[in-house]
Write a structure and sequence with these properties.
The structure is a homodimer. The first copy, chain A, is α/β, with parallel strands linked by helices. Helices cover about 45% and strands about 15% of the residues of chain A. Chain A is built from 12 helices and 12 strands. In chain A, helix 9 links the parallel strand 6 and strand 7. In chain A, helix 1 packs across helix 2 and helix 8 runs parallel beside helix 9. Chains A and B meet through helix 4, helix 5, strand 2, helix 6 and helix 11 of A and helix 4, helix 5, strand 2, helix 6 and helix 11 of B. The structure holds a DNA duplex.
Chain lengths: ~350, ~350
Amino acid sequence: MSNLTLKDIAKTLNLSITTVSKALKDYPDVSAKTKERVRAYAEEVNFTPNAYAAFLRTQESKIIGVIIPRLNHYFFSNVLKGIMKAAEEHSYMVIVLNSEESYELEQKQVDRLLRQNVDGILMSIADSTHDLEHINKITKQNIPLVFFDKYSKLSNCSSVIINDQNAAFAAVEHLIKQGKKNIAHFRGPLLPQNSIDRFLGYRKALDHYGIEYRKEWVFRCDDISSDEGYAYTQSIVEEHPEIDAIFAVADMPAIGAIKYLNEQKIEIPNQIAVMGFSNWKIANLITPGLSTINQPGELMGKKAFELFYTELQNIKKGVIAEKQIVELETDLIIRNST
Amino acid sequence: MSNLTLKDIAKTLNLSITTVSKALKDYPDVSAKTKERVRAYAEEVNFTPNAYAAFLRTQESKIIGVIIPRLNHYFFSNVLKGIMKAAEEHSYMVIVLNSEESYELEQKQVDRLLRQNVDGILMSIADSTHDLEHINKITKQNIPLVFFDKYSKLSNCSSVIINDQNAAFAAVEHLIKQGKKNIAHFRGPLLPQNSIDRFLGYRKALDHYGIEYRKEWVFRCDDISSDEGYAYTQSIVEEHPEIDAIFAVADMPAIGAIKYLNEQKIEIPNQIAVMGFSNWKIANLITPGLSTINQPGELMGKKAFELFYTELQNIKKGVIAEKQIVELETDLIIRNST
DNA sequence: CTGAAAGCGCTTACAG
DNA sequence: CTGAAAGCGCTTACAG
């Protein structure tokens, strides 16, 4: 809109479009004097080159697309922050799309990003995604694709993840070492790999310490919400009084549990200990503080961008490199809820 | 990358580029048979038109830029969610930038968005922004600009805001009606309008009910963080034992206050009542629940997009319309902290 | 050191 | 109903 072009500048300065373009891009074959003239004028009139026209030549949009399953989510916000910071450093901009854990939306959003000719796509798969056709579309077009956190074992793509199974094992092991024997699990939805892996880590820890697994002590949180945690804790207290600890797939259900227990004046951790997963900010703000597993969100975002970036360079050079899986460290954070 | 073009399709189908383009855009002057052929083939080869080339003709990027001062922030995430949902409905994509409350970053990001030729910019001003030159750049280029939440009274732009002064008044009035007389205020930084207005609302309420204002009971939270709230509450308890209520500029400092009071086993609200502002999710998850002012984030985002959209239509039609200020309703939410 | 020209992939007014 | 052609605003190989 009402933006100046190279042509306008060329006309005003009595130069060719070529020379103006070169001057602005600091080509060595333009005289210092001309460069100075052009630059001064461009500054004066606040010239901003048209990114679209440039793209048409260079075929690089300098934009990446990010699809996250939840926007108002401490962990994913942190990942996004990491991505955006790294992108900024490489002069990239980020189009953000929120799939709201919906497979249908996710498919549409992939299409939209492809149409936009983004230079790459970074995504975390929605809970309801059960099919990878849209993912294949991306890889077929030879566009770098990087998964973070919720990835797919079936697609051969670069990914930044944590070892959910080991982390969950450590969490449950900690509960056991605190003397807890009847440990319930609030698991996540059925499809996503991380909710499966955290469940498996729970089972493995029970196994390892010779504690019987009881499937009626596993409660499914499809929304991974505090409300679910609250409601399940109520039914635990009322129907399974022998349960002495809860390991939740994420902090939110754990916080719902703590809320209920606080209201009922049930002692945490003496009567029931509560363990979360993710280390949201809120985990340290409630009373008692929530023990949890720290998941390095910002670092994950940074790494995801870097994987994209090296992959893009490889493609440009025509190098076919192995896809990389980066596994980040997690820590057990012990607070007063265990 | 490796993307088909209209030319490729035209060649394969033995048609002209024109006809292919028209067929795909459902122009009336193309035969149904041809349209069908083109569409079927485009589908088969997964053709995605090049958005940049299209832009160069239409001068519409179908992208907006959003600058928010904080990313990992319940309220701003909600606004973003509202913006993105509305954008999606209008086939717009959203480039998100995080100014981290920094004036310098904000300036750079405005430049980057202008260079990208976004169709409009939606932003909330950083706490440290003390100058509007970058804002003027946007309006000079005749690009729609809409502020949300943190706006500037000095620039004539469309804005979606709340009445911070009235909302703060209602919050403090509620404390007074609960019998509180010695009410401290955790105020925000000096520059942003909303932190000024909330402070003014606090003063107005005191005035209105004949309570003396004491400036040593006002504590400045430059980061609007729980840590600041925690530390100030400690000094209140130790140095100003007569204080019986706290009104905080936002939920985070209020939650820090509650954390400290809980640790010290100081009764809330009997000894000290605590009032927040914004109604973050966490406000209802801590014990006691935090009384606060509900700020409709998602709705604010939706309205901001709509303001942008009507402004864009006006510009296209050459209509010069008044800038609009939309003021959204807030509610007093009473929980157990007051 | 400067500039004319081709071309990126579309859209659309115009001709037939 | 179909197509040749101009043009959006850049970049860059090439000529002078």
